[in-house]
Amino acid sequence: MKNTLQLAAIALLAGSVFVGASGPAHAKKQWCMYKAWDNAGHVVDAAAYRNKKSQACKVAKRRCERRLKRKLRKGKFGRTKGCLQVTEA
């Protein structure tokens, strides 16, 4: 019993090492993020990964605007300038 538990623990540890060494799924993809916020502190954001940055930004902006419209329609969001692109610092 003790040997089987040790064998299972070693197999689990070895498997996690191989999975962790494979790297992130978005290694060569471009990232873009859009955010909208109001004076009350409510925030809506959306991000996307694509092969091209322009495609990623189009998708992220479309998602952000859709989420913002939904919040505005439900009355859970105040006055805003809309979805703005977040730049990396």
Largest beta sheet, briefly?
3 strands, antiparallel
Got a strand count?
3
Succession of helices and strands: HEEHE
Helix content: 40-55%
Number of helical segments with 4 or more residues: 2
What's the gyration radius in Å? 21 Å
Strands in their spatial order, largest beta sheet:
2-1-3
C-alpha termini separation? 54 Å
Nearest-integer average pLDDT: 84
**SS strand fraction:** 15-25%
- Detail the poorly predicted runs: none
Structural class: alpha+beta
Shape: elongated
Summarize the structure.
By secondary structure, the protein is α+β, with helices and mostly antiparallel strands.
What does this entry look like structurally?
- It is a single chain.
- Strands 2-1-3 form a three-stranded antiparallel beta sheet, with helices on one face.
- Strand 1 and strand 2 form a beta hairpin.
- It has 89 residues and is an alpha+beta fold.
- The N and C termini lie far apart (54 Å).
Topology:
Blueprint: H1 2-20, E1 30-37, E2 43-50, H2 53-74, E3 84-86
Antiparallel strand pairs: 1-2, 1-3
